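User: Teach me something about this protein's shape.
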Amino acid sequence: MADKLSTPNAKRRLAIVHYHFRLGGVTTVIEHTLAGLMAFADAEVVILTGEPYTGKGLANMQHVPGLSYDSLDEPLSTSEELADALQEAARAGLDGNLPEVWHCHNHALGKNSALPGALGLLAQAGQRLFLHVHDFAEDGRPENFKVLRGSGPAFPMLPSVHYGTINSRDRGLLIDAGLPKSRVHALANPVVAHSEDRRATGKRPIVLYPTRGIRRKNLGEAVLIAALCRDRAYVATTRVPENPEWLGVHDEWVAYAAEHALPISFGVVGKHSPERLKISSETGRSLKAWLSAAACVLTTSVAEGFGLAYVESLLDGLPLLGRDLPEVTRDFVDQGLVFPGLYQALRVPISWIDEEALSDLVEQRLTAVFEAYGTPLPPGAVSRALYAMVDRQRRVDFGRLTESFQREVIDRIIAKPAAASEIIVETPGALVDLDFWLGSWFEEGLEIPDLNEQRRLLRKVSSPRAYTERLLAAYEALEKEPLAESEASLETEVSARLLEAFLSPERFQLLRS
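Assistant: First, the predicted structure itself:
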C-alpha cells in the first residue's frame, strides 16, 4: 500500500456534496478524489447526493432528495430545510458526527435554488466549507443565473469558506471579482489514460475527436478539416449529444457531410468499429478501441473548462491537433507540456461570407445574451466583438462563425479545393495555409512524435496522488481559519463582477449564443 500523506488529524471527517452522480465530468473528478483520499490520506468520507447512485466507484452514499436539480418556480425545499437535511445525512454517514470540511461541487451553478442559502447557513453555524467551482452560471447560462440570483449570496467572503477552481483562469476571475487570494485554490483535475495500446493500422490515418458533439465543440471545423483531408485521413467523432437542442445542430452536420461524401463519421463509439467503416483492422466499437486505432486526436472546441482533451491525448500516447484555448492550456504549458499541433485561429477571408449579415447577426445575438442576463448592451459592444473576430488582413476566425456561415466556407472549398490556400492557420510561431498545415501532419511516412517524456511529466503533475496532495493542502489552509459566527454577513458582489467579466464583448462566441 502507498504511504499515507500527512494530515493534521488522525481521521479527517469530510462530506462531499453534489447534485447527482451521472456519468461524466464532475462525477469522474469525485470518483478520483475519493480513490485518492482512500489510498493516500486518513479520511472518513460521506457522499451526499440528490439522486440515487447506480455506479460502483463510490461508497458511503447518503441520498438527500432536496439536493437534486430544481428551479425557483418549483423548489424542492427551502434553504433551512436543505441545511437541516444535509446535516442529518452527514451525521448518518459519519457515526453521528458532522464533517470538519464540507466539500461541495458546483454549488453556484444555479441548478438548485436552495443550495447557496443552505451552505451560507452552515457557514454561519460554524462549519467550514470548501466550494469547488467547475462551471459558472455567469458564463453562458442565463437561465441558471436567474435561479442563482434568487438563491441568496453565492460566494460568501468568510475566512471559513475557501474555493477550489479547475484552472488558474477561473482562480484569477474569482480573485479579480473580490475573493482573497489565500482562499482560492487552483486544483487541476486528476487525469488517467484511456488506452496505451496504440496500433493505428489502417488504410488512412484516423483523426479521432473525443467529444459529445454539442454546439460549442464546433463540429463545423472538424467537417472543414475532413473536407480538406479527403484521402489523407479520416475524421471520427465519438459521441452524439443527449440534449435535443444540440442534437438538431449535430444532425445537420451529419446530413451535410453525407451529402458531400466527406471522410467523417459522427458518434462512432458503441455504434461502429473502424473495420466496419473500412478504415482500419480494429474490430472494437469502444472508446478504447477507437483510440487504439487512431493516429491522432482532434479538438476544435471554442470553450472548455479544465480542457481534459488536451492532456488525455498525451497520456493515450497520441499527438493532438486542432484549436488551442490559451487561457485553458496555459496551466499545462506552465508545467512544461508542449502542443505543437494546436492553432489559435483558422482565418478565412471575410469576403467569402456576407459581412453585413455577420455584423447584423452579432448585434442580434449579443443583444439577446445581455438581455437574457438582464443587463443593457454597453456602447460599442458590437464593434468590440467584431474587432475580436476579424484580423487586420480582413480575415475572420472560422470558429467564431455560425454553422450557416461555416457551411458557406466549406461549400467554397468543396467546389474549389485550391481555395484552401487562402485559409490561414494562426499559431504563435507562424502563419501557414491550412492545406499545407494538414499535409505536414499527414504526409506519407511521417513518423509520430515521441511523447514518452511528455507522458512522464503529465503523470507526475496530474496523477491522483498529486491531486490528493493539492487537495489536502487546501483543506489544511481552510482548517487554520477562524469559524464564522451566526451574524456574519454573507453579502458579496462576486457574482455581479463575474458576470461583467464573462459578458465582455471580446469573449463573445456565436456558437454559444
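Now, about its shape. The two ends are 50 Å apart (CA to CA). The chain has a mean pLDDT of 90. If you'd like, I can walk through any region in more detail.
User: That's plenty for now, thanks!
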